[in-house]
# Entry
Amino acid sequence: MRCVIARFPFDLTKSGVLESMKGIKPEQASGESVIIGRRTYPVKQVGQVVTRQDRRDFSAGEVLRAMTLLGFTCRGLSAAAPTRVLNPVQQASAMLGAPATN
# Structure
């Protein structure tokens, strides 16, 4: 499959990506990630290995799009759970460990 990453065209295949990532130890994935084989890699690490470019030259979105089209499972940033806003009395009660009254 032909895709453009950092304004350069690449002909990527699923087997080619698997071969490129073979033997590469995954870094700690704290943001977007790609599951290749049984390992979870950060998107930027995959992009760097596959394209041989500096990580600053491409966006995570470009690599995510290419890996998704190749059939890999990709995970984006997980949305934070909405937090409940407490009024000052409820916040003080929570800090003291007492149940807040409404």
